Amino acid sequence: MTTPPAAHWPVRVRGALEDPLSRWLWLLKWLLALPHYVVLLFLWIAFVPVSVVAFFSILFTERYPRGLFDFNLGVLRWTWRVSYYAYGALGTDRYPPFSLKAAPDYPATLDVTYPERLSRGLVLVKWWLLAIPHYLVLGFFLGGVHAGPWSGGLIALLVLIAAVVLAVTGTYPRDLHVLVMGLNRWVLRVAAYAALMTDAYPPFRLDMGGEEPVTER
């Protein structure tokens, strides 16, 4: 179980804070994002059996089938774009695309390096046993189900504070944004690890900021 330096991290999360942002649009984003939530519900239902098939493929061949990998990565990308637009960050007012493909021109991006080989031994334990410490931390970050406007976790609380400041001043606090990005980056690294997409164990640290860090912290 290795932890590579951040410069070579296989999971790369970006979230560019757009300026200006509407003072009041965030009040309606739960409604505007509703079509995405419906589609994502079905995508996540498909995500589970795809991951099961990938599990057995890795167990017997040490490979994550590329088509399955691209699908699950697409679900994570779509989820991150909607979360960044809505109540996972409120970092942009640009409506997310309905697409599993990469959208490099969108303010929120997610990439995971495709692994040529994955450990047969780790696939048996990393998604539950090895990830348990991270699940405990993520429970604090996310609170309840992280789909509605506010789920009660730390991320939701910070985003709510940012929304109130935005409504009063017209500006999203940049210090809050870098912290929210660090928390979301942690969540997405663990999500990719638990989804068997990498053997790189997520670090217990906040890599804050809109851009992925380029050096070890």
Summarize this, please?
The protein has one domain.
Describe the structure.
The chain is mainly alpha-helical and about 220 residues long. The chain has one domain (about 5-195). Helix content is about 50%, strand content about 5%. The chain is built from seven helices and two strands; from the N terminus they run βαααβαααα. It has helices spanning about 30, 35-60, 65-85, 125-130, 130-140, 155-170, 175-195; strands spanning about 10-15, 110. Strands 1-2 form a two-stranded antiparallel ribbon. The radius of gyration is 17 Å and the shape is globular. The model has no long low-confidence stretch (mean pLDDT about 95).
Identify the notable features of this structure and list them briefly.
two-stranded antiparallel ribbon, 7 helices, single chain, 217 residues, mainly alpha
Main sheet specs = 2 strands, antiparallel
Number of helices: 7
- State mean pLDDT (0 to 100 scale): 93
Instruction: Count up the domains.
Output: 1
- Sequence of strands across the biggest β-sheet: 1-2
Number of strands: 2
Strand content: under 5%
| Low-pLDDT residue intervals, each spanning 5 or more residues | none
Could you tell me how far the N terminus lies from the C terminus, measured between alpha carbons in angstroms? Answer: 19 Å
Give the helix proportion (percent range): 40-55%
- Gross geometry: globular
Order of secondary-structure elements:
EHHHEHHHH
Coarse structural class: mainly alpha
Instruction: Please identify the oligomeric state.
Output: single chain
C-alpha-based Rg, rounded: 17 Å
